[in-house]
């Protein structure tokens, strides 16, 4: 697993004065196991400012917040330094949060970026924000979204693979997903599980009144399709040292089945991939995957194809 190495971990700390931070705790655990250094980073976007005195007052307020946040980050850093970890701190102003994090990741040459998912809505679900999705789409290095609050103790790592390579996903991405999951499982004393969720075969054709017409699929066709996908999945994972009990082929809606499997396994982390869609200069996740990300209650690691990381470095 030589290409997935952790030397520098960038931790985006949204609220440095918070009593606890799950992303910092997760990063510290990884640093202890890998010897990686940490950088605690806070971004303060400059608000829309008026002219004259109002502009000066807002700028002064931003500077005061930056000084306080840097001091709060240093308090966290000093605690981690007492654990013999190498820790730096940085505060950036004047950029959108995701832009600041991406910029700092490039400057720091980080191997991994950590962010913490926060609770939203009346149901207090750990939903991802637009900033989170921008980082998912645009970060050239792996992005760990910390959702779980429990410490990793021999965690089960679930790698979600795509043997059909939908949405122009390269075959190398599945290998990258497995490699990242195996590397973290190894250093944290956990186990790696592999999965694919096969969608039911449904073909859509344009209708005569701008509506979709569903083409009827016979049970035999459905069974043949599922058997073909199953064969591709097991063929693709045949070279990995993962026991049959830790290989999971499921059928249904990935937005439902993948979170359900993660819960049943009590997974500590799910590893997923993101790719660059043809003709676009941004990362593509997809509507289904966004629902999966929001539905998962454990941590999520997003990895990119190795050729994309090389192009961005």
Protein architecture, described:
Helix content is 40%, strand content 22%. With 313 residues, the chain is an alpha/beta fold. It has 2 domains: 1-116, HUPs (Rossmann fold, 3-Layer(aba) Sandwich), CATH 3.40.50; 148-313, Rossmann fold (3-Layer(aba) Sandwich), CATH 3.40.50.12370. The strands form 3 sheets. It has a 10-stranded mixed sheet with strand order 3-2-1-4-5-14-11-6-7-10, sandwiched between helices. A two-stranded antiparallel sheet has the order 8-9. α3 runs parallel beside α4 (130-138) and α7 (254-265) runs parallel beside α8 (287-295). The longest helix has 29 residues, at 53-81. It is elongated.
DSSP strand (E) fraction? Answer: 15-25%
Radius of gyration from the alpha-carbon trace, in angstroms: 21 Å
Average predicted local confidence, pLDDT: 84
Q: Write down the secondary-structure element order.
A: EHEHEHEHEEHEEEHEHEEEHEH
Highest-level CATH class of the largest domain: Alpha Beta
Q: Please give the alpha-carbon distance between the first and last residues.
A: 19 Å
- Count the strands? 14
**What is the count of structural domains?**
2
* Number of helical elements: 9
Low-confidence segments, given as residue ranges, are: 203-210, 277-284
- Helicity range: 40-55%
Task: Could you tell me the CATH topology label of the largest domain.
Answer: Rossmann fold
As laid out across the biggest beta sheet, the strand order is 3-2-1-4-5-14-11-6-7-10
> From the 3D coordinates, which CATH architecture of the largest domain would you assign?
3-Layer(aba) Sandwich
Identify the overall geometry.
Answer: elongated
Structural class comes to alpha/beta
